[in-house]
Amino acid sequence: MLLELLSRQHFASIDDIRRATGASMPTIRRDLGQLEKRGLLRRVRGGAAPATTSSTLDEAFELRRRRNAREKGEIAVVAAQLAKPRSSLLLNDGSSTLALAEELVSQQKPLWVATSGLNLGERLASAAQIEVIVIGGALRASSFGTSGPLATSAISQLTVDTTFIGCDGIDFELGVRFNSLLDAEIAVAMARQGRRVVVLADASKIGQRALAGSTGWSDIDVLITNELDADWRDHLLKQDVEVLIP
After folding, report:
1. TM spans, by residue (predicted)?
2. What is the domain range of residue 23?
């Protein structure tokens, strides 16, 4: 409940926290201390604030998942409609693709899905109709994603109907961007193996160059986002990228 509160506002006073949780002051102090030790928030004078980070790479995944959760859920509903029954999919790790995995589970369609996200694989495996392959490799605790040569080698052996890619940024000229070279490498490998490549990016990612490039607009078929201005729409139209907005 504390993390949900801080995902909606940049500062929560002690009174805000008491109203949201109904907890006693000793409980609030204990929980704030535990969450601060885990790097999920900062204790500040009079309350708490979200953890300060320079990039999403360093954030606890749970806090990333909660950020713009409603928008990610709306994007996931549109993305899931592109996954036809008995089709094959590739999903990289991330909070947007986790939202898609949850939507696919709720729709109960028969699918074949390979993913580099351990948390995605666990969620997808709860649906009997979905056959799940988890791609092996080096595991990064901050994202629950696998990467490295073992992962890219496994991906290169697959050919799927649709690759879904979540990202850290979308650049006007350069395309899909990431805060991690390892994440960029996985996205490139997955994009090569999909007959159709779909990018999931809420509006906060638009215009964010991030550290590492991966897939240019010429290799992307569809962008699903919750908000996009006319200049971006015209630019992507010229790049033959279809834009879908919930």
Report:
1. none
2. 1-52
Residues pairing with 244 in the sheet? 224
User: Is residue 72 domain-shared with residue 16, that is, in the same domain?
Assistant: no
Q: pLDDT of 83-141, one tens digit each?
A: 999 999 999 999 899 999 999 999 989 999 999 999 999 999 999 999 999 999 998 77
What is the pTM (predicted TM-score) of this model?
Answer: 0.73
Q: Say which DSSP state 205 is in.
A: G
Residues 112 and 12 in one domain: no
If we measure between CA atoms, which residue out of 239, 238, 232 comes closest to residue 205? Answer: 232
User: Three-class SS of residue 240?
Assistant: coil
Q: Are 73 and 103 in contact (CB under 8 A)?
A: yes
Is residue 70 located within the same domain as residue 27?
Answer: no
Strands 160-166 and 194-200: parallel
Same domain? For 92 and 173 the reply is yes
57 in a domain, yes or no? Answer: no
Are 206 and 174 contacting, i.e. CB atoms less than 8 angstroms apart? no
